[in-house]
Design a protein that fits this description.
Layout (H helix, E strand, L loop, with lengths): L4 E6 L5 E4 L11 H10 L12 E6 L6 E5 L4 E3 L3 E3 L6 H5 L6 E13 L9 E6 L3 E7 L4 E9 L13 H11 L5 H8 L7 E7 L2 H6 L3 E2 L2 E3 L2 H4 L8 H23 L7 H37 L4 H14 L15
Keywords: Monooxygenase, Oxidoreductase
Pfam family, one: FAD_binding_3
GO molecular function, one term: FAD binding
């Protein structure tokens, strides 16, 4: 269902604040549904599953990259685009600094209401002292929810449980003072859908200065710009990456691929130029997104009064239009 608005509710005071969603349609959908739709549009055999990457190497004679897999095999490529997530081996090959941890974790899940729910079509966040509970309807029977918690640094505080039932029990304990409908929502959630993740980010200044290309190797998605979920733009930015990189490669090769330029070294030079265009086009968009999510993350964790004051000042000065990022147009293929 299309979302018609969003509300922030303070648990302690009960105060509510309406949040704009930006222009156009806003809908919540399951990530797996999106992945399936994208995968089914590809030729059969394009995707190979169960191929965990271990390292990237360059052929000494041709300078072509190859991806070495856990099963002992390798994949040789003319162009390698690492979309292998936060702990990317392709990012390691590019000498990018590892992503950093917020002192926050997030539990996510789905809850099905066979007879329908009465939550309407609003995105609602309830904020307490130690955690925030968010609820977004997908359709009139299915709801997506998340619980963002401050990580405690005491005994066992850094451990992130993976057992779904334990995740549910600990989450219910954390939100015991929240409204009963939210407690009920999490207690009735689909156990298989539950996950618990420490939130990570790549520093805005790293995105500003780092080199995201080496030869014909680059990165996209979380491998390039891990960011917190506070704007809901991580996946969107990954889709933007794919459009821009495809466009840059297509334009550069279409303009230069003729009978006189089929030599491998010339073609590889054009590929590298295309990847440089891609990185240049994406950099400032990603710097702004990562800065906004970084400041939002600092405001949610225990950062101290001075840090929070600086964050609020910077958010007001740089991002007074809170939904501007939703109106960005990365162009057509």
């Amino acid at each position: 269902m299309p979302l018609q608005g969003a509300r922030d509710i303070c648990l302690n005071s009960g105060k509510q604040r309406e949040i704009p969603l930006g222009g156009g349609e806003t809908r919540c959908l399951k990530r797996m549904d999106l992945i399936t739709a994208l995968a089914e549009s590809l030729p059969r055999g394009t995707i190979r599953l169960g191929c965990q990457a271990l390292s990237v190497r360059l052929d000494s004679s041709t300078s072509s990259p190859s991806l070495h897999l856990q099963n002992g095999s390798s994949i040789k490529a003319k162009v390698l685009i690492g979309c292998d997530g936060t702990n990317s081996v392709v990012a390691d090959f590019l000498d990018l600094k590892p992503s950093k941890l917020f002192s926050l974790s997030e539990v996510r899940g789905f809850t099905m209401y066979p007879s329908g729910h009465n939550f309407g079509n609003q995105f609602v966040q309830v904020k307490g002292d130690k955690c925030t509970v968010g609820r977004i309807p997908i359709h009139n029977k299915l709801v997506y929810w998340f619980v963002t918690q401050k990580v405690m640094y005491g005994r066992g505080g850094l451990e992130v449980p993976k057992d779904p039932e334990l995740i549910r029990q600990l989450t219910l304990e954390a939100i015991k003072d929240f409204p009963s409908e939210m407690i009920d929502m999490i207690s009735k959630s689909d156990t298989k859908s539950l996950s618990n993740t420490r939130l990570r980010y790549r520093s805005p200044w790293d995105i500003l200065v780092r080199n995201f290309r080496k030869g014909s190797v680059t990165v996209a998605g979380d491998a390039m710009h891990t960011m917190g979920p506070f704007l809901g733009q991580g996946g969107s930015a990954g889709i933007e990456d794919s459009i821009v990189i495809a466009r840059c490669l297509a334009q550069e090769l279409a303009e230069n691929y003729d009978k006189k330029s089929r030599a491998r070294n010339i073609m590889m030079m054009k590929v590298e130029e295309a990847l440089d265009k891609y990185v240049k086009e994406r950099r400032m968009r990603l710097v702004l997104l990562s800065t906004q999510t970084y400041l939002a993350g600092l405001l949610q964790q225990d950062s101290g009064l001075i840090v929070k004051f600086v964050c609020i000042f910077l958010m007001t000065a740089l991002f007074s239009d809170m939904t501007r990022h939703t109106r960005y147009d990365c162009g057509c293929l």
